[in-house]
C-alpha cells in the first residue's frame, strides 16, 4: 500500500509540473497575442493614415490632370481656330489667283469650248454665264454598264456621249439622246490591263478620250476611229486620276506619290512632281501646266508651272478625295472611298457628289447647304458623277454596274 501511495504521489507531482509548464506556455502565448494585437492596431492606424494620404494625393493629381487637360483643350481650340483662319486666308488667296487668271481667259472668248460629235460636226457650247443649270429631281434613264464594278463616268463636251469604265478593264461609249432620254452603246475601247479609275475628254478638239488604270498607265484613244493612240507608262503604282491640260498635254496623279505631265506630241513625260503623298485627284489651272492636286495627307497642293515646287499648300481635316475647279466668277455626306469624285455644275453654282449610301448629294455653293438629295435608285455606293455640259442632267454610276441619268 505504501508503494502504491508513493507511486500516486509521484504521478500527481508530475501532473502538477506539467500543469505549471502549460500555464507558463499559456501566459507566454497570451503575452505574444497581446503584443501582436497591439502591433495590428498600430498597423491598422497607419493603413488608415496611408489611405487618407493616397486619397489626398489622388484628388490633387486628378485636379492637376484636369487643369492640364483644360489648358490643352484651350490650346487645341486656339490652334484649330488659327488653322481655320489660315486655311480660309489661303483659300481666299488661291481663289483670287485662280479667278483672275480664269477671268482673263474667259474675257477673250464668248464660248467656253468647242466639241465634236460622232458625226464629225462642230458644235458650240455656250459660255458659262449663259448656261442655265437645272437641279435634277428624278432618275430618267437607268442601265447596266458592263459586267463588273463601275468606277468612272464622264459626259462628252457635246453632251451627246457618255463614257463609263470600271473593273472590266474597258471604256464603254454610250450615245445619249436628251430629247427622248434614250441611251445605247456605240462601241467599247479596250487596251487596259486592270481597273479603269478615271476618264476625261479633250475639250479643245473633242476627239480624244483619256483613261487611267490600276495597271500604272494612262491611255489615249481617238473617238472617230476608236484607235489606241498613246500608252503612257512611268508611274510606279495605281494611277488614280488623269486630265487633259491641252489637246497635247496630259497630267496624271498616282498612288506612287507623284504627278506627271505628258507631252503627246513627243510621247514622253516632261515633268515629274514629287508630292510625298498619294494623289487622289487633280485639276489643270491653265494651259501652261499649273496644277492643283488633292492628296491622302489631307493637303491640297498648288503647283507652280515655272518649276517643280508647290507655291501653296492647304491643310484640311481629312484626306482629299476629289477636286473640281470653278472657272467662272466665282456633314450629311460620307464618301465611300478615297477615289470618289465630285463635280461642279457648268455654271459653278452647285456641287455634286455620290455617297456611300447610294444617294446623289447636290449642294448650293452660295449657301453651303444641301439643295437636293437624289436617292432610292442606286443600291450601293456611288463611285463617280458627271454633270451634262448644258447643265440639264447628272450622270451617276454605282459600284455594281448600274448607271443613272437624272433630270426633271
Automatic annotation (TrEMBL):
<feature type="repeat" description="WD">
    <location>
        <begin position="189"/>
        <end position="231"/>
    </location>
</feature>
<dbReference type="InterPro" id="IPR036322">
    <property type="entry name" value="WD40_repeat_dom_sf"/>
</dbReference>
<dbReference type="InterPro" id="IPR045160">
    <property type="entry name" value="ATG16"/>
</dbReference>
<feature type="repeat" description="WD">
    <location>
        <begin position="375"/>
        <end position="408"/>
    </location>
</feature>
<feature type="coiled-coil region">
    <location>
        <begin position="5"/>
        <end position="32"/>
    </location>
</feature>
<dbReference type="InterPro" id="IPR015943">
    <property type="entry name" value="WD40/YVTN_repeat-like_dom_sf"/>
</dbReference>
<dbReference type="GO" id="GO:0034045">
    <property type="term" value="C:phagophore assembly site membrane"/>
</dbReference>
<dbReference type="InterPro" id="IPR001680">
    <property type="entry name" value="WD40_rpt"/>
</dbReference>
<dbReference type="InterPro" id="IPR019775">
    <property type="entry name" value="WD40_repeat_CS"/>
</dbReference>
<keyword id="KW-0175">Coiled coil</keyword>
<feature type="repeat" description="WD">
    <location>
        <begin position="232"/>
        <end position="272"/>
    </location>
</feature>
<keyword id="KW-0677">Repeat</keyword>
<keyword id="KW-0853">WD repeat</keyword>
<dbReference type="Pfam" id="PF00400">
    <property type="entry name" value="WD40"/>
</dbReference>
<dbReference type="InterPro" id="IPR020472">
    <property type="entry name" value="WD40_PAC1"/>
</dbReference>
<dbReference type="GO" id="GO:0034274">
    <property type="term" value="C:Atg12-Atg5-Atg16 complex"/>
</dbReference>
<protein>
    <recommendedName>
        <fullName>Autophagy-related protein 16-1</fullName>
    </recommendedName>
</protein>
<dbReference type="GO" id="GO:0000421">
    <property type="term" value="C:autophagosome membrane"/>
</dbReference>
<feature type="repeat" description="WD">
    <location>
        <begin position="148"/>
        <end position="184"/>
    </location>
</feature>
<dbReference type="GO" id="GO:0000045">
    <property type="term" value="P:autophagosome assembly"/>
</dbReference>
<feature type="repeat" description="WD">
    <location>
        <begin position="344"/>
        <end position="373"/>
    </location>
</feature>
<dbReference type="GO" id="GO:0043495">
    <property type="term" value="F:protein-membrane adaptor activity"/>
</dbReference>
